Structures are given as C-alpha cells and as structure tokens.
Amino acid sequence: MLDLRFVAPNADIVVGDVLITSGMDGVYPAGLAVAKVVKVEHSSAGAFGGVVCQPLAGVDRHRQLLILMAMPELPPRPPAESTKEIKRSALTRMTPIKEATAPPAPPAPAAPAKEGTR
Question: Is the pTM of this model over 0.70?
Fold first, then answer.
C-alpha cells in the first residue's frame, strides 16, 4: 500500500478515486494511472489528513525494476512571460458589427408532375 501524507483536510479525495500523473515534472507523461484510493483518513487533531492507496501497476508481480538514480536531462524551462501594463488610451476602439442582411432564400423545389390516367 502507498501512503499519501500531508493531504489538506478539505481535499476532494474519496475512496475509489484513481490517482494519475500530472506530467508537470516532465519525467512522466500526464494521465498515467498510478494508484486507487482505498482509505481516506481525516485527522481532527492535525492540520493534515492521510490517504491510503493501492498501486495499480502490480508491483508484486514483476521480477525486474528500473531505478532512476538521477533526474534525466530536461530542457530548461522557458522564461516567464513579462506582462507590461497597457494604457487604456492605447487600446483600439471596438466598434459593433453591423447586422448582416440575410441571404436570399433558395427557390422552393418544384412539385413532381402527376402521371395522367390512360
């Protein structure tokens, strides 16, 4: 079993939830299922609760394991975008769009000709 410690007591986690990777670290892609929540512990005495999870990878059935001893080389994060304040007078004035006239209706299909009696 896996223990998630230091979970906020108001976290929206319930038994049966599946924990997935976020992809934020750049090591694992987002959306990989990791574990299923089997128990949620709310501690009234402490500031944090705990969550007990069952791994979904079947780690007890594997014979080999790959351990990463160092973080892989990742490209550097892009620099944060700077936001500069724009004066209201520098913005272009928006004008309302005039209502377009409706295109002419297509002609009604002709009624099929009735066959005459012989």
Answer: no
